[in-house]
Design brief:
Catalytic activity: beta-D-fructose 1,6-bisphosphate = D-glyceraldehyde 3-phosphate + dihydroxyacetone phosphate
Cofactor: Zn(2+)
Bound molecules: zinc ion
EC number: 4.1.2.13
Helix content: 25-40%
Strand order of the largest sheet: 1-2-3-4-5-6-7-8
CATH superfamily of one domain: Aldolase class I
GO molecular function: fructose-bisphosphate aldolase activity; zinc ion binding
Largest sheet: 8 strands, parallel, barrel
CATH architecture of one domain: Alpha-Beta Barrel
Strand content: 15-25%
CATH class of one domain: Alpha Beta
CATH topology of one domain: TIM Barrel
Function: Catalyzes the aldol condensation of dihydroxyacetone phosphate (DHAP or glycerone-phosphate) with glyceraldehyde 3-phosphate (G3P) to form fructose 1,6-bisphosphate (FBP) in gluconeogenesis and the reverse reaction in glycolysis.
Radius of gyration: 23 Å
Shape: globular
Number of helices: 14
Length: about 450
């Protein structure tokens, strides 16, 4: 319909002239649109292949793109608690192992995955260095880094030092198209017992000027970064009620940055929501509206993983006391109850359900159209008319849009995300090509 007959030739020409390497992390978040219904990715901490698989299973079942991340401790656990970790060697090995595991199995689940590493404080920098070395090695062979993205958290250091470290690392990371997540302001912290309700204090509530300083320093290197700003977030260490979440403060950061930048882009910042466990639906919605592109959940999914196992062990207690002999008779075997594939599986199921809930809170269900054999230069006319389009296309795919009257626009996707597919979204209403061109620097626009 909108693709005229002459555009076939144009498309072929496009294929030849627009190849360019894309970053391995795709920034999501409908940052220039006030519709908060989509665009934020759920990030789940994984500590074992069992946890990772359960998260991928959830993402597949609800057709959601997802972020799998390892913390420093979680990575060490992935490699095994029996390993020494005095030089971060277990955390490095475990992070690399997790990345390879996820890369391998994610293809089978068929969902876009962003591979990320969580908080890295100053004293843990050897862990960060180890992962970067693995990224560089993987890049040399595959043309993409092992991880999509890493977090550097120097929020406990003075601001100037925090930013200076981020700049140094980000310059290196940019060579490999790695996304940086940084933190400024304190998530949680030492304010326990102090009622911070409604208070804009500097430690638990990052100030707009600080955010903009970070933006200015990092944007000079690459647009592929996000900022975890404190708005009263906690990591599950506080008693409820001591610190209040104020996701509405994020709007101030966006407005201040927009004003400094000239105001064309109303939400120039990619923001990250830490300590998402226990948040109300309203808080999540406000955060998403204000440009949060990634939300972390760990505590709630840990508890969910336990739940299924706990329920199984409690309800089958009579079958778990010996290898033979249960309430059905003294000679009855119990193998089908004590096999880890049975009871661990119960934890995977409850974890998976919690992940689905988390993605649903962010509006990420049924988010993907997956085209395993999508051919180059194919026109997907229908998708243009979807009111809420999100697509997952293999690298090299092209998709054509009508942009303006009688004008066809081609966007070519080249490899991205962890297994060669790229996640792309468009919100309801008019297609916003400016957003994509701005934040996904590698996407080519032809008209
Ligand atoms: Zn965090």
């Amino acid at each position: 319909m909108f693709a005229s007959s002459s555009s076939t030739q144009e498309r072929n020409r496009t294929v030849r002239h627009s190849r360019k390497l894309a970053p391995s992390f795709i920034a999501l978040g409908n940052n220039t649109n006030t519709d908060a219904s989509m665009g934020t990715l759920q990030a789940i901490n994984v500590t074992s292949s069992s946890v990772a698989n359960a998260v991928l299973e959830a993402a597949r079942d609800i057709k959601a793109p997802i972020i799998l991340q390892v913390s420093q401790g979680g990575a060490a656990y992935f490699a095994g608690k029996g390993l020494a970790n005095d030089k971060q060697q277990a955390s490095i090995t475990g992070a690399v192992a997790a990345a390879h595991h996820i890369r391998t199995v994610a293809k089978a689940y068929g969902v876009p995955v962003v591979l990320h590493s969580d908080h890295c404080a100053k004293k843990l920098l050897p862990w960060f260095d180890g992962m970067l070395a693995a990224d560089a090695e993987y890049f040399a062979t595959h043309g993409e880094p092992l991880f999509s993205s890493h977090m550097l958290d120097l929020s406990e250091e003075p601001k100037a030092e925090n930013i200076a470290h981020c700049v140094t690392y980000f310059k290196e990371m940019a060579k490999y198209n790695i996304w940086l997540e940084m933190e400024i302001g304190i998530t949680g912290g030492e304010e326990d017992g102090v009622d911070n309700t409604g208070v804009d204090n500097n430690s638990l509530y990052t100030q707009p000027e600080d955010i903009y300083d970070v933006y200015s320093a990092l944007n000079a290197i690459s647009p592929n970064f996000s900022i975890a700003a404190a708005f009263g977030n906690v990591h599950g260490v506080y008693k409820p009620g001591n610190v209040r979440l104020h996701p509405e403060l994020l709007q101030k950061h966006q407005a201040y940055a927009a004003q400094q930048l000239g105001g064309k882009d109303k939400k120039p910042l990619f923001l990250v929501f830490h300590g998402g466990s226990g948040s109300t639906k309203e808080e999540i919605k406000t955060a998403v509206t204000n440009g949060v592109v990634k939300m972390n959940v760990d505590t709630d999914t840990q508890f969910a993983y336990l739940s299924g196992i706990r329920n199984f062990v409690q309800s089958k207690a009579g079958y778990l006391q010996s290898q033979v002999g249960n309430p059905e008779g003294p000679d009855k075997p119990n193998k089908k109850y004590y096999d880890p594939r049975v009871w661990v599986r119960e934890g995977e199921k409850t974890l998976s359900e919690r992940v689905k809930e988390a993605c649903t809170d962010l509006g990420n269900t049924s988010a993907l159209f997956i085209f395993p054999s999508f051919s180059n230069a194919m026109v997907i006319e229908d998708l243009f008319y979807q009111t809420a389009f999100k697509g997952c296309l293999p690298g090299g795919s092209e998709i054509w849009f009508k942009a303006g009257r009688n004008k066809a626009v081609c966007i070519t996707f080249y490899h991205v995300i962890t297994f060669g597919t790229l996640y792309f979204c468009r919100n309801s209403g008019s297609y916003d090509i400016k957003l994509k061109l701005k934040h996904c620097t590698t996407i080519q626009n032809h008209d």
